[in-house]
């Protein structure tokens, strides 16, 4: 005759406790994995945001001061006009604002709203202003953009530093030869912080 004895309440409670402990451990592993995945995703997003911002600025900083009429851009032999008809880095350059000046049409003028029409690139402004404020990096091409255009958001810090020929810091626009850029981003609340730095030598200086 088969035994009809069942489980006691104590045995059921022990089993439930063991199952609960196992499920809690598994839940902790799943949540830890999700947190690591999310953190990694925010880090990738922040890296991409910073990389795009820096690459855009580096390209334009290298071209700053473009002056097609006089090919002599050696500071040792041409330290003043007409080789340098204006400052490649404008007087509005600060730690959070970068002003770039060009002379696409070669007229020797540094008008704030001067423009030139390029057959391939359309209308181009001769002054570009990058500015950081309120977590947003903006770019404004004077004479082309009616207002600043957002280049990157989720930015927590941007610092521009200006160096002379000998590598010392300078605030004199005409003496600037290199621009150092530091950008920090956090694209999500509690997400990863990413900081990238670059130094750009002015080709036309």
Give a verbal description of the structure:
The chain is α+β, with helices and mostly antiparallel strands and 205 residues long. The protein has one domain. The chain is built from one helix and nine strands, in the order αβββββββββ. It has a four-stranded antiparallel beta sheet, with helices on one face. Strands 7-8-9 form a three-stranded antiparallel beta sheet, covered by helices on one side. It has a two-stranded antiparallel sheet with strand order 2-3. The chain is elongated and about 105 Å long. The N and C termini lie far apart (103 Å).
Overview features:
alpha+beta, 27% strand, 205 residues, 9 strands, elongated, 1 helix
Beta-strand fraction estimate: 25-35%
What is the radius of gyration computed over CA atoms, rounded to a whole number of angstroms? Answer: 29 Å
List the uncertain runs: none
Number of domains: 1
Provide the helix percentage: 25-40%
What is the spatial order of strands in the main beta sheet?
1-4-5-6
Using DSSP, what is the number of strands? 9
Q: Biggest β-sheet: count, sense, barrel?
A: 4 strands, antiparallel
Q: Can you tell me the overall shape?
A: elongated
Task: State the distance separating the first and last CA atoms.
Answer: 103 Å
Tally of helical runs: 1
Tell me, rounded to a whole number, the average pLDDT. 82
- List the secondary-structure elements in sequence, H or E: HEEEEEEEEE
Q: Structural class of the secondary elements?
A: alpha+beta
